[in-house]
Design goal:
Layout (H helix, E strand, L loop, with lengths): L1 E6 L29 E4 L14 H9 L5 E5 L26 H16 L2 E5 L18 E2 L2 E2 H12 L2 E3 L2 H11 L1 H4 L3 E3 L2 E4 L2 E4 L4 E6 L1 H16 L40 E3 L2 E6 L9 E5 L2 E5 L6 E2 L4 E11 L2 E14 L6 E7 L14 E8 L3 E7 L6 E6 L8 E9 L2 E8 L2 E8 L10 E9 L2 E15 L4
Parallel strand pairs: 1-2, 1-3, 3-4, 4-7
Antiparallel strand pairs: 5-6, 8-11, 9-10, 12-13, 13-17, 14-15, 15-27, 16-17, 17-26, 18-23, 18-27, 19-20, 19-26, 20-21, 21-22, 23-24, 24-25
Length: 471
């Protein structure tokens, strides 16, 4: 017998090496309260609808067997009506394919029942609220319906178990008040006080749990299962309530004395800013200039790199507030390339910006671009690691006068990049990618080129599209 878990980031596993209080989904703590193997297939940023496109859903369909349990924990992202990939409507009934109930039943509950497994629904935990007022989207009560109530109503309609985690999490946060409840949630960074590191409460993640918070929600879930007739209760261990002794500080956290962005530190080019980041060997020959409203970035050979310990590149960028969604498109032409190893160019979204070229940096970023290492890759990123994650490989590095079309946009937790080259479109979606690991208030989007390249960027278009709805 196994307990399979599907759901969003509030249940999923993370790898937050850079967080002070790392993110933990509560499903990562279930084995502390249940004597059963937990197969956690939850994925960050997903809704019940978008999860159907993931390989984890295929794994679930192939693996779930008679006698197993299936915990279904969606709701946070299903309510985002600005995102057609994830949205489903909590107001509609089970017969409507656009409804939240329909998706839960048709693709999860029915799947479990058909193989003889036991489905268990869980309502989404509340989002932490600094004012200690819990209403509206904080408790998943939206203009498109109440997602907690939709789950509870569906369970009643189908006569299956639903565990209400929304109300207990609200009650817990109200009892503790915000200044104490924050320790149940992830905290991105720390500050120094009297020579010691303490949590930076301005960087509290109001959606995602800390290790302590995840353990507490798992404890609540187990306690509520005990009060039901679910066969899962037979696997319960001793229910010991977590205490503040369970607060866990990430031992890998490294304090970075990051200087916030100041517009006066950077020169203008058209309506962008420009800088050089990293450790350039020769500071005099790099060149960024405007030609007929196009931007030319010229980088000398053996100058610039992207690898494990140092990113060094020319960057033309815009600062974007954390609350804003955007879309950027651009075309590019290679005017010159020496086809050296570590050639790279494209458009990028990143966590930090610097106005000096004398410091090491390997911060989080997503590149809608090309990089030549041992092979040539298209679309790549770095998050919490020194390694670059590459999405596509092509046979040869492009030639002089080859052209490219880039598109990069953010819609809340989803960052989508696409690159068109030789009539092929390469595209990838990133969910819950951390672009606020160091700079908690802004992120930075723009064009770059390194190492023996001269690139002309043209037909550049940048727009703030809407306000981000958060996690």
């Amino acid at each position: 017998m196994k307990l399979y878990v599907v759901g969003d980031s509030t249940l999923a596993k993370f790898n937050d090496v850079s967080y002070y209080f790392s993110r933990y989904g509560y499903a990562t703590k279930l084995e502390e309260y249940f004597d059963i193997e937990v197969i956690n297939l939850a994925q960050s940023g997903r809704s019940a609808r978008s999860y159907l496109n993931d390989k984890e859903y295929e794994t679930l369909k192939k693996s779930l067997q008679k006698g197993d349990f299936l915990l279904i924990g969606f709701g946070h992202n299903d309510q985002k009506d600005d995102d057609v990939i994830r949205f489903s409507d909590a107001r509609l009934d089970i017969s409507n394919p656009k409804s939240f109930k329909y998706v839960l039943y048709e693709y999860y509950i029915k799947l479990a029942l058909n193989v003889g497994a036991t489905p268990i629904l869980a309502t989404p935990i509340a989002r932490l609220n600094e004012s200690d007022i819990y209403e509206g989207i904080t408790i998943h009560d939206t203009k498109c319906g109440n997602y907690k109530n939709a789950i509870l109503d569906l369970a009643k309609e189908l006569d299956i178990i639903a565990i209400n985690l929304t109300d207990p999490s609200i009650n817990l946060y109200k009892k503790l008040t915000y200044k104490n409840a924050i320790y149940h949630h992830a905290i991105t960074g720390a500050i120094k006080k009297d020579g010691k590191l303490i949590a930076n409460i301005k960087s509290v993640d109001k959606t995602h749990l800390s290790s302590y918070g995840a353990k507490y929600i798992a404890y609540i879930f187990a306690s509520l299962i005990k009060e039901t007739n679910s066969p899962l209760k037979a696997y319960l261990k001793e229910l010991k309530e977590p205490t503040e002794k369970d607060i866990y500080i990430n031992p890998l956290y490294e304090y970075i004395d990051y200087i916030p962005y100041n517009s006066n530190d950077y020169k203008n080019i058209i309506d962008f800013k420009m800088t050089k980041i990293g450790l350039f060997k020769d500071n005099t020959k790099e060149n960024i200039y405007n030609l007929d409203n196009n931007i030319i970035i010229e980088s000398m050979p053996n100058s610039g790199v992207m690898h494990s310990t140092n990113d060094t590149f020319n960057y033309v960028f815009k600062k974007i507030d954390k609350s804003d969604n955007f879309k950027m498109t651009a075309k590019a032409k290679i005017l010159n390339t020496d086809k050296m190893r570590q050639n790279s160019f494209g458009i990028m979204i990143r966590d930090t910006i610097y106005n000096s070229n004398n410091r090491l940096t390997n911060d989080n970023f997503i590149s809608c671009g090309i990089i030549s290492q041992d092979v040539t890759n298209i679309l790549f990123s770095r998050e919490y690691t020194t390694e670059l994650k590459k999405e596509y490989t092509i046979k040869e590095y492009p030639n002089n006068l080859d052209t490219f079309e880039f598109e990069l946009y953010r819609l809340g937790q989803r960052i989508t990049i696409s690159l068109k080259y030789n009539d092929t479109i390469y595209k990838h979606d990133y969910y819950d990618f951390d672009i606020f690991a160091i700079d908690n208030n802004n992120y930075y989007v723009g064009m770059y080129a390194i190492n023996g390249l001269k690139i002309e960027f043209y037909d550049i278009d940048f727009q703030i599209t809407s306000k981000a709805k958060g996690a």
